[in-house]
Specification:
360 residues; alpha+beta; 12-stranded mixed sheet; 35% helix; elongated
């Protein structure tokens, strides 16, 4: 671990910062309970006070960006990922002291709550996944978005920028961006990813309006705009079985055009059925129109891979545990927790042997 810490924290200019970083990482990996500065310091073997650790994260001068670039190279070498996955993180907060906290509607819970909202950029393969960069939604604070909705103006560009910054820093191949975009503004998201040269695989809601591509499957006398759910339900009979991770799903493809996305181009809407359900379990929109159905389904399943590793690894190393008012401090903490996640996966260099089963 010492050698990996030296590599991952090598961009920190001062020896005392690298030492504090190593102490913080050991605490994230070994302390029990919430990974606060006090808990990390109280846990035997860190050799640092709670005040010094808090200062290192909240008030020190080191820049997290080059650390993340090094982390991305480290994860890329160990993981050999298939895609970038964007995953939101919502942390419930009882007060308003923590950075980025406000009352907002949380679609997954179906209610308004006081919380902190961010999203992480993950590198993911079939067997494992690790976060390498983060964006914190500030909402109405200086430099933040206009409101807390997932489709807040500019957030789609932030998604594309989050990926391109890491990709450019590491000169990596443009992998597909996989994301659950059911609550996002899909046309501007597609525009942002296309402008950045990033292929995409987006889970979309059934109400998304789409045009069947001319010259392809016709749903009447002529192609007409209809909700994605409606289009797929009419084509269920055309579904074909596709096996993925030991389970058989029925997949139906349809060439479509997304209204409002310029330039207009043919995309692929993929409906995925499980068991004998009348409605598809998932709807995916992608520009990977030449890829096989099995390959596309494996990409879609990477969101579940990320969810599993978030719950099994990231939460355990304290990704949700930062409490403070410092925007810089939040970014430093999640960067160090992301390093701890990668170190947990790569213990003894066994990236390939570590695997948390995908739930369900």
């Amino acid at each position: 671990m010492n050698e990996a810490c030296e590599e991952l924290l090598g961009s920190l200019r001062r020896a005392d910062q690298r030492r504090r970083g190593g102490q913080y990482l050991r605490g994230l990996l070994t302390a029990t309970g919430r990974k606060t500065a006090r808990n990390i310091a109280n846990f035997g073997g860190t050799g640092a006070s709670a005040q010094s650790l808090h200062h290192f994260v909240a008030s020190s001068t080191w820049d997290w960006r080059p650390v993340r670039a090094t982390l991305a190279r480290y994860v890329d070498d160990g993981l050999r990922p298939n895609a970038w996955v964007i995953r939101p993180m919502v942390v419930s907060k009882t007060g308003v002291r923590s950075v980025g906290v406000r009352r907002r509607f949380v679609p997954d819970l179906g209610r308004v709550m006081s919380c902190q909202r961010s999203f992480g950029l993950w590198m993911a393969s079939d067997a494992r996944a690790a976060p390498v960069s983060w964006h914190l939604t500030l909402d109405g604070e200086p430099g933040g978005e206009a409101d807390g909705r997932p489709d807040a103006p500019g957030e789609e560009r932030d998604v594309a920028r989050l990926v391109t910054e890491i990709a450019q820093a590491n000169r990596t191949v443009a992998r597909p961006v996989v994301m659950d975009a059911r609550t996002a503004a899909v046309p501007p998201l597609v525009r942002a990813l296309t402008a950045a040269g990033l292929p995409f695989m987006l889970r979309v809601g059934g109400e998304l309006p789409l045009d069947p591509a001319a010259g392809r499957v016709q749903l009447g006398q002529r192609p007409q705009t209809a909700p994605a759910q409606h289009l797929m339900e009419q084509l269920k009979r055309l579904g074909r079985p596709v096996e993925c991770h030991g389970a058989v799903n029925f997949v139906t493809p349809l060439a479509v055009v997304l209204p409002g996305a310029l330039p207009r181009r043919t995309l692929l809407l993929m409906g995925v059925w499980r068991a004998n359900r009348r409605r598809p379990a998932d709807l995916w929109l992608t520009d990977l129109t030449s890829s096989g159905h099995s390959a596309l389904l494996r990409l879609a399943m990477l969101t579940e891979r990320v969810d599993s590793d978030f719950a099994a690894v990231s939460v355990d190393v304290g990704i949700r545990d930062f409490e403070g008012r410092s925007f810089q401090g939040w970014h430093r903490h999640v960067t160090l927790a992301s390093i701890a996640h990668a170190l947990r996966l790569s213990q003894d260099g066994q990236w390939c042997e570590y695997q948390v089963p995908i739930a369900g």
